[in-house]
Amino acid sequence: MSEELYQLPASYGQQRLWLLEQTDTDSTIYSMNVAVRMRGPIRPELLAEALTRVVERHEVLRTVIRLHGAEVVQVVRAPEPVPLPVIDVDGGLTGARARADELRAAPFDLAQGPLLRCFLLRLGPGDHILLTSMHHSISDGLSLTVMLKDITTSYAQLVEGGDGVLPELPLQYADYALWQQEQLSSGALEPQIDFWAERLAGLPPLRLPRDHAAPDRPTFDAVIAPVELKAPLLAALLDATPGGGGTPFMVALAAYSAVLSRWSRQQDLVVAIPMAGRSEADLEELIGFFVNSLPIRLEVRPEMTFKELLGHVRDRCIAAYSNPDVPFELLVERLRPARRVGRTPLVQAWMAVVPAEVRLRLGEIPGVTLEPVLLAHAKAPFDLVADLLEDGDVVRGNLFGRSDLFTAETVELVSRSLDEVVSAAAADPDVAIAGLPVLVADERPPSPDDEDPYDVEPVAAVTPLSTGTVAEGATEMLLRTLWCEVLGRPSVGVDEEFYALGGTSLSAVRVVMQGRRHGLELPLDVMLGEHTVRQLAAALPAKALPAAESNRGEVS
Q1: CA distance 239 to 232
Q2: What is the pLDDT of residue 469?
Q3: What Pfam families does UniProt report for this protein, alphabetically (predicted)?
């Protein structure tokens, strides 16, 4: 293990992923993977050296994320050679994909690292696949392009007899994280925070009718259905957008929101969309977790026409684009939405349409042909995810639905519904939302079990007590003491809710850490949900109680 050089604050995105890693059993959902097939003469030892040069250039690739006291921090380590195992595979491309799936399924250890792993799969002489796998805390979609460009640039120099050293970067990812902190502490983000607080006030959760009972702990495994929105239909709807200025993404989002509204029977809903988060030119050449999620709140009324919905979507997107800098994690802390274990706060549906100009670019290696290898990513961090790409004049991609909530047939119906909605709206942009052919709503009537799968109390219900009521039992007494210490309050009543008292996700982690010092094991997933002292005490497993009872004297 290399020397640890320095410790810096984690970005808001890194903090959020660290918290999620503490509660989720499958960390592969946060894995960023890219595979490139290389046809031609490849020298593995030089490719490994090129990878080492790239890791030397980007500090974030030799960073780990851990809790230090009350803060999540990133620790940058000294450069060291990057291993590149060469693995022979049989079965051609199919066999290589299967082996790549096995390799990228290994979990990451955020505290110990490394958070980058590379492999060279050898299909035969002059035929290799370079697989790179990074944890999302140090990478995002655009980072994959930066990574590949730097690898190919360094490798080409090494092949020609150079040292492969890349120019020093003017900034590192840690500088961006510090800038985020400064933006918040200076008050520069307050106008944007006020915008989102007003826009999202009173937001109801999206309740999509499910096929399966919600599990106690989600797997995030997904069922997948392909999506393709045809060029002539998109062009017709772009021409129909009121006031002009529409994009293929806005058309797709309008169709998506119409399907979600009809399926859920809700007129008020949110779809999260990604923003690159690289507003400054110096950030474009960096690897790191910059992408931010913007929660677009939409009103989809049955009587409005699709043309009106298009205009509404365009206006909401433009307003969101003007307020892009508030980290989603900060919004969650400020807005304090209802918290449910296994469900992302604020948002249950997500959509991305990647423009053609920012799609994956591979760089060049003289004498070697490079082409991307599609890897299946059957994970859904939200209930429903539309991951699409502008491909020429067509928008195509995949729809991912959580397999512990939906069947493959239902996700296929949603995909077909998108196609039918776009076709019908292109034929008549003035068609009412209520008149659109939404198959998943028309062919799947709601059942009595279609309530919100997480619309339940996260911990045992209790009879409310008046604030300041004296707690009974050593467990409640210890919890009150811990909350007072962490939240900086002189007293806490057993019926007061943690987040209403000013708690945050990180302060919840501090309570867990402090509890362990007193011999009390608090489940972090429960602690991250809404709860009072008494509810939390009642939700603890029996094995946690004797340790608390043994400390009666310490907290009385």
Answers
A1: 11
A2: 44
A3: Condensation (PF00668), PP-binding (PF00550)
Work out the burial of residue 230: count CB atoms within 10 Å of its CB; fewer than 13 is exposed, 13-18 middle, 19 or more buried. middle
Q: At what angle do helices 231-240 and 408-427 cross, to 10 degrees?
A: 60
Rounded CA-CA distance 4/400 in Å is 39
Query: For residues 512 and 525, what is the distance between their CA atoms, to the nearest angstrom?
Result: 10
Long-range contacts, stretch 98-107, CB < 8 angstroms, 24+ apart = 100/33, 100/35, 100/129, 100/131, 100/373, 100/375, 101/375, 101/376, 103/131, 103/133, 104/28, 104/31, 104/33, 104/131, 104/133, 104/375, 105/28, 106/28, 107/26, 107/27, 107/28
Query: pTM value?
Result: 0.84
Q: Are 48 and 81 in contact (CB under 8 A)?
A: yes
3-class SS shares of the chain: helix, strand, coil, % to 5:
40, 20, 40
DSSP assigned state of 77:
E
Q: Quick one: pLDDT at residue 553?
A: 40
Report the alpha-carbon distance of residue 414 to residue 402 in Å, rounded.
Answer: 13
Cα gap 88→99, rounded to integer Å: 10
Residue type, 553: G
Looking at the DSSP bridge assignments, the partners of residue 389 are 354, 396
AA letter at 539: A
Averages of pLDDT over each 10 residues, the chain, 556 residues: 87 87 68 92 96 97 89 93 96 92 90 95 95 94 91 94 94 93 89 94 91 81 92 90 85 96 96 88 91 95 96 95 90 75 80 74 84 80 91 87 94 96 96 96 65 42 37 77 87 87 78 80 73 84 54 39
pLDDT of residue 464: 35
Question: Does the bond joining 209 to the residue before it have cis omega, within 30 degrees of 0?
Answer: no
Which tokens sit at 46? 């030089």
Among candidates 481, 476, 484, 488, which has minimal Cα distance to 535? Answer: 476
Site of tokens 């320095």? 6
Q: What distances in angstroms separate CA 454 from CA 136, 223, 299, 459, one per listed residue?
A: 26, 20, 23, 12
- The pLDDT of residue 525 is 66
CB 106 within 8 A of CB 141: no
Query: 312-332 as b/e, with b when 16 or more CB fall inside 10 Å?
Result: bbbebbeebeebebbbbbbbb
Segment (H or E) for 222: strand 222-229
Which tokens sit at 259?
A: 């399907």
Residue 211 tokens read as 């096929």
Cα–Cα distance list, 239 to 235, 247, 437 (Å): 6, 10, 22
User: In what order do the strands lie in the sheet containing 71-77?
Assistant: 4-9, 71-77, 63-68
Name residues whose C-beta falls within 8 Å of residue 455's C-beta, 6 or more positions apart in sequence: 205, 207
State both tokens at 554: 């310490």
What pLDDT is stored for residue 27 in this prediction? 60
pLDDT score recorded for residue 457: 37
